[in-house]
Amino acid sequence: MSAQRPGPSTAPSADPALAPVAPVLAAVREQAPLVHCLTATVSMAIVADGLLAAGARPMMTETAAEAPVVTTLADALSINLGTLSTDAMDGIPATVEVAVRDGRPWVLDPTAIGIAPVRTPLARQLVESRPTVVRGNASELLALAGTGPGGRGADSTDTADAAADAAAQVARRTGGAVAVSGAVDLVLDARRQARVDRGSELLPRVTGTGCLLGALTAACTAVHPDPFEAALAATVWLDLAGEAAAARATGPGSFRMHLLDALDAVGR
Amino acid sequence: MSAQRPGPSTAPSADPALAPVAPVLAAVREQAPLVHCLTATVSMAIVADGLLAAGARPMMTETAAEAPVVTTLADALSINLGTLSTDAMDGIPATVEVAVRDGRPWVLDPTAIGIAPVRTPLARQLVESRPTVVRGNASELLALAGTGPGGRGADSTDTADAAADAAAQVARRTGGAVAVSGAVDLVLDARRQARVDRGSELLPRVTGTGCLLGALTAACTAVHPDPFEAALAATVWLDLAGEAAAARATGPGSFRMHLLDALDAVGR
Amino acid sequence: MSAQRPGPSTAPSADPALAPVAPVLAAVREQAPLVHCLTATVSMAIVADGLLAAGARPMMTETAAEAPVVTTLADALSINLGTLSTDAMDGIPATVEVAVRDGRPWVLDPTAIGIAPVRTPLARQLVESRPTVVRGNASELLALAGTGPGGRGADSTDTADAAADAAAQVARRTGGAVAVSGAVDLVLDARRQARVDRGSELLPRVTGTGCLLGALTAACTAVHPDPFEAALAATVWLDLAGEAAAARATGPGSFRMHLLDALDAVGR
Question: Where does this protein hold substrate (chains A, B, C) (predicted)?
Fold first, then answer.
């Protein structure tokens, strides 16, 4: 399965990449799932605004005192190791436990693992709780599978294809889907694999677009029972929004604004 | 008292809703009050940028080690239970105590109370310190008064009118004003009540606009001695800015940008 | 040395203030330095987005458990006392120690020191570790040198020129450069002094532009060995971007967006 960029004459609504995932987008917009996000402090606003633009609803409590309780209200959970505050460090394990107990879908985003001494073992431990979807860049997937040193910060020094084996190995362990973000994105589970050659070079020029993809993936898992299709829908959604935004942007600042507008507009 | 949407031919500067509150807006712009905000991490930037756009000045320290001391510099205090970090949990009670001791106006925004086990009793306890204004959505006011279960996350599942009795009950306890945000906003104190049927459906599509309203209310209480009029001014200010932004926006991302521009422009 | 505003007919690329610092901007864009930032929570997003727009790469872990380890990956470190969470309070000293040990350039931004009881002594203690550049407003520099009470919040109640002696005193202690931001900016070290009369009145109307200047300064120190020239380059970069943004903006919201676009565009 492969999504290629259409010719310039194709209307956005007729984009061939959109058709297979359009029902997932429509379900998010109709059901407005409540997504509990424990995410990097730096990306909280774009994650929340991106979820709202997509039609979902964010919730962001992260302390051990409150996060496990309020996650019982959520339709899905998104765990991003981002800046990993002490509050998040303490709150994440217990919150995941509640989501697993209640059978809620959840997404793990092992941001910036590698040499970081707390998040790296934490991410590997969370894989044992079998996240519905794992989303990361290639370096993070390689580090998660134990076959690479990780990237520098939130960057990836590897391509998504280079992490295909590591991603497949993680998917075998979780029984769910894995999405590897990059210039070409890779989404896979035990049986299927899709390459998505869409998006914009401006996406990594805005902080938190990867974190947003993780949360958007959680929103899609809340409304669609197939983790692979949910992860693919989120990836295509953000990529198409990125293309629409890039067509209007005059730089990374305006791209960020248009991206949020486009998340709302894609496929309508 | 009731503010209705004017016809499309009315110039913004002549908006009839603006006249009664224009002196409060002018005073904020002239006095540039320093507003100490302990607010949700996710909304810090829009709160700070919104205050700056309105002509006020934000300050955001929240630890117990520093917040009570630096709040002595502030002209007003805004307490929002938002993401409620451990730092904020620890810092809020002592900071409120200093504001009360010094006779500074302060606003309580009981964000997302209901089932959350720390913030819900904390909000009720803070009401005993008699906030100048309580600002929340209907579900939060119902939960604060003990007559409703709260919403899901920062959403309200009730209309402002449905919370009128709860809001009046809270106002009797505090002796101040209460503002209930919704499609129609309600502002009241022991003697007066105003319905504000203005604003934009895009306001709840941007994270932190409610938090911003709480902080803007604090800015207004810093320059105007009547809590009811200050709360009403802030509500009208944000609603009119929201309408002006909606007229220019092509989605929630551009709406957020235009909202900040409009907070600066309304009534000038 | 002094940079004056050129006439309106001058093309941005021919701006005379740009020529001396253009090689530094080019080096940031080419080398994409990884800048580890421990910064105010409220300004994290604009700092990260600003670094990305400028061509650098941000990293934002701040706990004592992880920050000292991951800073070994960074090309420069930016320490901003901003909201100073407990995590940052704990993480900053050990992280600075690693940067000093490894000979990495680092920037100290003593935000809002004055009466704040933790950050004020911490800032003075960090000066002893000889930051490559200290960047602050006039009130902060006066408080750092022990000759002024500090400002109110992140504001300065003094002009940069009024802090010239204090800045020179700090520079003598660190052996590095000091940048004092204001309507006119001052950059100096033990031997040189530059006044930069550029920028826009809208810069202080957006939260975190000062924090961004500190981080941008760190990015410049990562690619240029002379702290004075690196600090001057960052100051001119932000000021020229501010002028370009102001020419397009219709208020502080749109200014923020155009500022990020302009950081990407200046001098290209």
Answer: 60, 208
